[in-house]
Every structure is written in structure tokens, then in C-alpha cells.
Amino acid sequence: MIQLRKASWPHWACLLLLAALSLSCGKKTGDLSSLKADAVAAEKRNDFSGALTIYRQAYLLAPTDRDVLYGLGSVYKKTLMPDSALVYFRRARVLNPNDRAINKELVQLCPQFFDYQCAIDAISALIATGDNEKMYWPILGDLYYRNEDFGQAARYYELLMAEYPNDRIYYLHLSGSYSYLQKFKESNDILLKYIDRFGPSGEALANIAVNYINLKRLDIAEDYFRQSLEFNPDHVPTLINLANVLSSQDDMDKKREALAIYKKNRPYTPPIYNLDSLIPALEMELGIDSSGQ
């Protein structure tokens, strides 16, 4: 009986197999480089859909690669999907904290999603890698203000006001920062400097009045509210604030004036001012019934 021998691989076939395995093992890195180059090329010719497809393929191969993460962020930004762009720029920054291109993108994108600390951190990295802090004073003041870090905001607005004494916005921002810090006298000092330099305005005078309310000087607050109304007699928030100050003083004539202001402006006053409660309470205090008798 003839027995068939098992087929065996010739020596040359084994060598070919080893060579093929070697090529396949070395192809992964080459593929990543090719994918990145193809994605960049697609992005340059504004084929953003194609670029995204290629970058996603590259991401599967190398999810921590800086160029892939940055490329995904860049294309998503260009296709008006800033939320997705921010995801990838954030990931890229975690792995590359001092990368200037990444941090510049975050300075632009983070405030759109109310993440002001993210933008502040990105600016800090840009300063640490060579930028002059002075060029960021305006945006840092605004970012710290929005982030409710009013101490830092005041620091930058002080610098800006000293550097640009003819730019009125920095006076108002600085006074606002001081008010939030409950430095009401300091806030008024800045507003008075504003008035000395630029002349009185309804906004500045009303802000001084509000600070005097917090300083428990209702009589002075009343005077500044009245001065503010000379610039804008129909400004409802100022009218209601004046009425609040009048109704809080121990003077029946002022309380009656406050009631008249409340009633006259009731149709135009937002519910947040709570006139539906203030009017009957003040009428009761004045001994007036709800029919106005």
C-alpha cells in the first residue's frame, strides 16, 4: 500500500513567508505617515469630508499622535463643529502642554463654551513659551472677569487703565471688578476719575449710586440716581432703583414718590423687579388700599 507523504514547505517558501511577515510588521508605521500626509493634502484642497475620514483611520492606529489629534481638531473647526474640535485640541494639549499651535486654538475655542480657565491656562503656556504677557492684558482681564476671579481681573484692568488712560472701557471694567470685590469706595473712586476725564454719563452715575447703596448711604445714592436719569429719563432699571431707594428711606413723601414711579413703570418692568409684591407692600405702609383710595 502506498502511503502519501505530508507535503512540506520548501526552504525558499519559508523565506518568502518570513519576508512577507517582516513587511507587514513594518507597514503600520508607514501607513500612519501616509495617512497623515493624505489627510493634510485633502485638508489643503478643502476636501474636509475626505480629510476627516483619513484622520479617523489614523486615529485608530495612533490615538495619541499629536498631528492626528491636531488635524482632527483643525478639520472639525473648519467644518463649523467647534465642540468636536475642542475635544481633540484638549486631548492634544494634555499630551503636549506647551505646544503653541494647540494653545492658540484653545484660546479661541474655550471661551465659546464658557471654559474661561481653559483659555487662561492656554495663554499662560503661550507666555511661558515666549509671548509677552502685555499683549494678552485685555483678553486676560476679560477672561478673569467672566471666570469671576475679580481680583485677577482688577489686576489686569489696573494695568490697562494706567497704560491706556484714554480708553474709557477699562475704567468701567475696573470699577465693576472692585464692586464685585465689595470695594465700593474704590469702585467709586475709579468712576469719579472716569467722570473727570470723560464727563458724566448715565451709566457711570448709576453705578456710583449702586455703590452708595452698598455703603448704606441711601441719600447720596438717591442723588446720583437722579443725576443719571437726567441723561436717560425713561431708563426703567434706573427708575426702579431710584424708587427702591426712596421707599427705603424714612420719609413719607419719598415713599409716595416711589409708589408713583412703580405704578407708572409697571407695564414696562420685567418680573425680576418684583413690582407685584413691592406695590401692595408700599401701599399698605402708606395706608392706601388696593383700589388706590
- Provide the residue-averaged pLDDT: 90
Reading the helices and strands in chain order gives HHHHHHHHHHHHHHH
Could you tell me the radius of gyration in angstroms? Answer: 33 Å
Shape: elongated
Number of helices: 15
Q: Tell me the quaternary state.
A: single chain
Low-confidence stretches: 1-29
How far apart the termini lie comes to: 129 Å
Beta-strand content estimate: under 5%
Helix percentage range? over 70%
Described by strand count, sense and barrel closure, the largest sheet is: none
Strand segment count: 0
Task: Quickly give the structural class.
Answer: mainly alpha
Structure description:
It is a single chain. With 293 residues, this protein is mainly α. Helix content is 73%, strand content 0%. It has 15 helices and no strands. The relative contact order is 0.04.
Helix and strand arrangement:
Blueprint: H1 11-44, H2 48-61, H3 66-78, H4 82-95, H5 100-109, H6 116-128, H7 137-146, H8 150-163, H9 168-180, H10 184-198, H11 202-214, H12 218-231, H13 236-247, H14 252-265, H15 275-286
Helix pairs in contact: 1-2, 1-3, 2-3, 3-4, 4-5, 5-6, 6-7, 7-8, 8-9, 9-10, 10-11, 11-12, 12-13, 13-14, 14-15
